[in-house]
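If I may wish for something, please walk me through the protein I am sending here so I can picture the backbone:
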Amino acid sequence: MKRLVSEAKYHLIPLNEIGGYQVRPGIYEINGATAIPGGVNFTIHSNQATGCELLLFHREENEPYTVIPFPENYRIGNVYSMIVFGLQIQEFEYAYRIDGPYCPKQGLLFDKNRILLDPYAKAVTGQSVWGEKRKSAGNQYHARVVRDDFDWEDAKPLLTPLEDTVIYEMHVRGFTKDASSGVKCPGTFAGIYEKIPYLKELGVTAIEFMPIFEFDELRDAREYQGNRLLNYWGYNTVSFFAPNTSYAAGIEYNQEGNELKHLIKTLHENGMEVYLDVVFNHTAEGNENGPVISFKGLDNQIYYMLTPEGYYYNFSGCGNTLNCNHPIVQQMILECLRYWVISYRIDGFRFDLASILGRNEDGSPMSKPPLLQSLAFDPILGNVKLIAEAWDAGGLYQVGNFPSWNRWVEWNGKYRDDMRAFLKGDLGKAECAVTRMFGSKDLYHGKLGNTTSVNFITCHDGFTLYDLYAYNQKHNEANGWSNSDGANDNASWNCGIEGETEDEGVNCLRLRMMKNAAAVLLLSRGVPMFLAGDEFGNTQFGNNNPYCQDNIISWLDWNLLKKNKQLFDFFKAMIAFRKKHDPVRKYTPVCEMGFPAMSAHDVSPWEDHFKEDSHYIGLMYAGRTNGKDDCIYVAVNTYWEPLHVKLPSLPLNMRWYQVADTYEADSIMENGILVSEDIYVRERSVMVFEVRNVYE
C-alpha cells in the first residue's frame, strides 16, 4: 500500500479530463476509495456490469453535484479504477451507479439508476445519530473517504495465550446507555473507555464486542404497545469495513473509527485484547423483498446463494445467505479481516453462524471449506484468534467437528447445555459435567489442547445468568411475536418463584446459584466467556431474545452492582484464582505428590463412576505453578441436601485449605481455612480447596 501510494506521488499524473475533473486510470489493486497525494483513488469491481459511474455528493445531500463515468479503457478485467485529482476528502461523499443486465430469475439485478454503496467503504454517512432516520432518498447510502492517520505509537499486540484468556461479551450501546452507568458519553465507545478501570478490576483479559460494523438499527423498526422496537443487536451488516458511527460520541468526519481506535489502544495498555463479533453469513439487504444497498446491485448472483429460480437461500434465518466460498466473496472477507487487524489492531474474531462459512454455493456443507482454510493460514491473521459459532439457522450443527486446521476454536454449545442441566440438579448429568469441565475431550481430542472449547453458560443469545435462576419460561411478550420467538428450552430454574420476589430465601438461593455457575465456568479447562452484567446479576426480565429492545430490558442496570456487590467480588476472585493456578488452565509439569493432571471424584476420593442420580462431582487439578506443587479441588454439590465428602489424602507435609464457599455470603476466604479431609458440602453449593505445604 505505501509503495503504491509512493509511486502515485511521483509517477501518476492526470491523463484525461471528465466533467471538469483531471483523471487517469487508478491503482487497481486497492479496492475502495483511498486518498493519495493529489487526489483520490476509486476502485470497484463487478463481473457482469456493462458500465460504472462515480457519484460525488455534498455532505448530506441526495443529488450528486457531479457524475464521473468510468471510461471503458479504465476497466481492466472486471475492475473499474480511476484517480480523480484535486478532490479534498472532507468536501464530498460518494457512491456508484452500475449498469448491466436485469433478469431476477437469473439473479441479475443491475439498474443504472440505482445508487449503490461501495462494498469496501471505510465510513458510511447518514447514520451517526442512533435511531434517527437517514435523510437520504429511498435506500441510498453514501460513503466517505477516511484519513487513516491514527498514531498507535509503539503499541504491540498482547498475544494473550488462549489458556490465559477470559472473554467478556458486550453490547457497545447497552453496556453504558442506562443513566446508572454514570458515564459522560453513554452508549458509545467513549462510554466504555470510562469503564476501563472497572473492567481491569474485574480481571477479564478480552472484550468481545457484539457487531460494530455499520448496521441499520431502523431495519424492521416498529411500534409495539407504545415501545419503539429496533434492530438493536446489529446482526444486519450494511458495510463490513466501516465502524458503526452511531457508537461514536462525537462526529468524526473523514476520521471515522478514531474513537474506537483510542478505546482499543487503551484497552491494550490495560491488558485487555479486543475481539469483534463479525457477521459474514448474511447482510441487511434481506431477501427478494429487501432493499438493494450494495451487493445486490453489484453482483447479486455472486455475493448471495440463490436458488435455481433466483430466490435467496436463507441458512441465516435473516433473509439471505452470503456466498462465502465464491472466490470474490472470499477475497472480500479476507481483505475485511486484514483491514480490521491492520487499521484497528483487532486481536480476534467471533464468527456468527460460522457453519454458513463452510457451505458450498448450493448450500451443501464442504469438508475443507476454502474460506475457513484461507483464514486459518493467512499470514496477517497469523496471531489472531478465530472463534466459530459452529452452527447455523439451516440445521448444520458442527460443535466438535468444525474444520479447524488447529487454528479455529469453537463456542461450545454443549458445555452450556450440559452445565446448565447439571447445575440445576437434572439427573444423569454428573459425568457430562466432568467431561465439559475438563475441556470436552469427547469433542476436541487431539485439537488445540485445552483451548479449542470456548466455555460459556450465558451469552447475548438467551437468558442472563440472573434470569437463568429467576425464570422457568421465557417472557418475550415485549418483542411483539406473542412470545413465539426465542428458545423454548433454556434449562433454567426459577428457584421456586417465577420472576422478581421479596422472598429472602429464594433470593439467597438465586445468588448462590449464580456463584455456582461462575465457579464452575472459571474453574473449567477451556476458554471461559460470560455476558457483560452477569457479574452483578443484571436482568432482562425473562426476555431471552431482546434483539429489538433498545431500553432497560437490554441496557445494563449498574445499580445492581451495589446491590449484588458480593457476586461481583466472587467473579473477580474466581478470575484471579484462575490466573493464579496454572494447572486449572493448562497442563504443567507433573506435581511431586504424584496426582494426575486432572481427576474426577465422587463423594469418596478416586471414585469416578457416576450414577444416574449423582448430583456431586469433585474435580482435582494437579501440577506445578512457579516451580512448586499446585493442587486444586473443586467440590460441586447440585443436590438439595448437604453431602458428606472426603477429600483425597495428601502427603504428611501437605494440607487442604478452603478458599471459597458459595453457600456463605462472604464466599471468598482470602487467607484460606485449614480443613480436614472430611468435609460437608452444603446443598446447592460449590467449595474450592487448595493444597499448601505446612512448612512454607
Q: What stands out?
A: Residues 47 and 450 are 45 Å apart (CA to CA). The longest strand covers residues 93-103. Residues 504-522 form the longest helix (19 residues).
